[in-house]
Amino acid sequence: MNKPHFSLLALSVAISCILLPSQVFADRYTTTQHDFGGVGLMQTPSARMAPVGEFSFNANRTSPYSRYSISVQPLPWLEGTIRYMAITNREYGPEAFSGDQSYKDKAVDVKFRLWEESYWLPQVAFGMRDVGGTGLFASEYFVANKRFHDFDFSLGFAWGYIGNRGDIDNPLSIFGDNFNERPGRTQEQVGDFNQDAYFKGRPGIFGGVEYQTPWEQLKLKVELDGNDYQSEPQDNDQAQDSPINIGAVYQFSDAISFSAGWERGNTAMIGITLRTNLTNALPPKVLDPPVEPRQALPAGVSAKTVDWASVSERLRENAGFDVETIEQKGRELIVTGEQKTFRNEATGVARASRILDNSTGEGTYDWYTLVNKPRGMAVTETSIDASKLRDLHENRIDMAEMRRSLVNAIPSVLDTEVLHTEPLDKFTYGLSLGYNQNVGGPDGFILYQFLARVTSEYRFNRNQWIHASVAANLLDNFDKFRYDAPSQLPRVRTNIREYLTSSDVVLENLQYTHTKRIDRDWYVMGYGGLLETMFAGFGGEVLLRPHNENWAVGVDLNWVRQRGFKQDFSLRDYSTLTGHATGYLQTNFYDVLAKGSVGRYLAGDFGATLDLSRRFQNGITVGAWVTRTNVSAEEFGEGSFDKGVYFTFPFDAFFARSTTSSGTIAWNPLTRDGGARLSRRYQLYNLTQAADMSRFNDGFSSLRE
User: Residue 588 — φ and ψ, nearest 5°?
Assistant: First the structure.
């Protein structure tokens, strides 16, 4: 399962996020979410944008609809929402395979701010609802907002669902009569962008006002709904006694708010929003060992009198630096190893420099150089002027001068004297919990599985290792999982049911990997074994990544064969050659990383994937991908093409101890076979992230500790 579905796991992450300190509500005029998810009133959006980095989980009920959504603000002018909706008075499908489960709709919304509010002009935004889902609730709209003291007024017009009342003639009809009617959506168009319907039909007017009461925790809303509910999807029209909706939002805390209202003049609404901000500072790392205090520098120290084994142990325990060798060249002390604890390399460098200074004494070495060598590949080295480091700690220089006294460079091969070689810890293991799910299918809205997972690693040397992962079922409701999605392509992902239900104990991964830096900016990796839950095989990757440049280019090529459903050592008949050429560009545009890949996918289709993501300074990443291949919409099936969003959370965003580990939650509307990529455990771009000096600079202030 290379892209797990959005599920209650996303809700658990949102609940975890509320434990983070939040400044989202420091402003009296904070934004609130509307019923469909995203900033707005009740049924309608507004032109307002949430603070950058805001992440909210919304759940509400307005009969016959139950809505669950996640809304995120990755950029100041861009809002994105993913949503599941239960239409509780319509069945999912024939009772023979769906029982009494209600129909489930999936959707993606976007909203763009066109310009900000000024003294005279309102804030204006353009948005699209249900832009890439079934299109049942699709709409395009423009909306403006203007604030007058405690009142925030909005006014807009919309085509499609939000404007179904059709108050005015379509102004675009001057370009042709085809703008007068909004075409319906065929089954083949489900999941596509449906551009043939954009801005067509009679638009409706919507708007309203949000009032911030003197009681700061309470906001009141009055809204003119642009929908008359007489053109509801699935012939599900609803009586509307009034187009005026009224509601209130009670802010229980910085992270939790409750909403209630009266909509359509006859229907109650109730909801809850959980929110945090992804730009929040990390929680204090109270479980980290304290920085080693500065000690009086010893006199008469030489390389022969230092206990280098003790230094190596302190570097590992206090600085997170797993030492390989300690060497010297003249008056430079060079420590080579791998940073395994601190995501910001500068934090580990600062701690390591203090340990080296305390151990070697003043005048013994002029420079301390730490070579970061993840998975046996020397990616970057950082050299610190020892005397400048002491000046910084005694406030004789500032951080700007310290930065000029620190050198980041590509590791070079030197003729050195080896002082200490640390034995390799060859075998490691760990225990953890795992989770699988299938969401929104006909067998049940949420099918879940909790696993106990044992992972282990045996390292032949620092460049070669075997990784294994075994998982055992603890709790699940997969006994309900009976439905196999239809497919006209080789079943490379749609037989997910068999993989999740065939065995209670599975061998998830058993892979040999060999990495190497072959030249100044070139890295290679080869691997083979049980590569993921559904495929075994072998492959390789090569990456060109110049040091401290904002671009990289990589190529991977893999021969794989489908694994047996029990995820043991058995194999099935299907095999294929798959691989991609990938370009990476770390832009200066809000720190967005753009990744573009072209190549052959698991089902034998050829195409391209565009992946855009933004990493915030605390390490949390928000991203989205879209894949188009030479498979037609009819062959691909419902969804038309592959797309989705994902969130990557460093674990130390939640815990009081530093770690380099992270987890990813991905959401794509449907599991299909087209555009499916091999889920590779290791990727060279991630393994060489120390080459990106922006990550180092994020933690540079820790040198003062």
Answer: -90, 10
If you search the block for the tokens 């969804």, which residue do you land on?
639
> CA torsion 530→533→536→538, rounded to 10°?
-70
Tokens of 419: 């002082």
Q: Which pLDDT does position 19 carry in this prediction?
A: 38
The secondary structure of 108-158 as a DSSP string is: EEEEEEEE---SSSPEEEEEEESSSS--TT-EEEEEEEEEETTEEEEEEEE
Token digits for 73? 């603000």
Which pair of structure tokens corresponds to residue 451? Answer: 């696993």
What's the rounded mean pLDDT across residues 26-50?
92
What mean pLDDT do residues 42-47 have?
97
Task: Give the three-class secondary structure for 245.
Answer: strand
What's the Rg (C-alpha) of the chain?
A: 28
Closest by CA to 254, choosing from 273, 271, 279, 270, is 273
Strand order in the sheet with 417-421: 406-409, 380-385, 367-372, 332-339, 321-329, 417-421
CB 333 within 8 A of CB 684: no
Q: Quick check: 48 and 145 in contact, CB under 8 A? A: yes
Q: What is the rounded distance in angstroms from the CA atom of residue 662 to the CA atom of residue 33?
A: 29
pLDDT digits (tens, 9 = 90+) for 424-449: 999 999 998 888 877 666 667 778 88
DSSP 12: H
Q: Which pLDDT tens digit goes with each residue over 112-167?
A: 999 999 999 999 999 999 986 678 899 999 999 999 999 999 999 999 999 999 99
Q: State how far the Cα of 31 lies from the Cα of 253, in Å rounded to an integer.
A: 14
Query: In a 3-state reduction of DSSP, which class is residue 635?
Result: helix
Quick one: pLDDT at residue 37?
96
In this prediction, residue 169 has a pLDDT band, given cuts at 50, 70 and 90, of very high
DSSP 399: H
Encode burial over 427-452: b for 16+ CB neighbours within 10 A, e otherwise.
eeeeeeebebbbbbbbbbbebbbebe
How high does pLDDT run on average in the chain?
A: 88
Q: Tell me if 688 sits within 8 A of 516, measured CB to CB.
A: no
For helices 345-360 and 308-319, the axis angle rounded to 10 degrees is 150
- How many C-beta atoms lie closer than 10 Å to residue 637's C-beta? 22
Please give the Cα distance from 36 to 70 (Å, whole number).
Answer: 10
SS3 sequence of 261-307: EEECCCEEEEEEEEEEECCCCCCCCCCCCCCCCCCCCCCCCCCCCCC
CA distances from 199 to 79, 165, 195 (A): 20, 15, 9
Q: Degrees (nearest 5) of the Cα angle 130, 59, 473?
A: 95
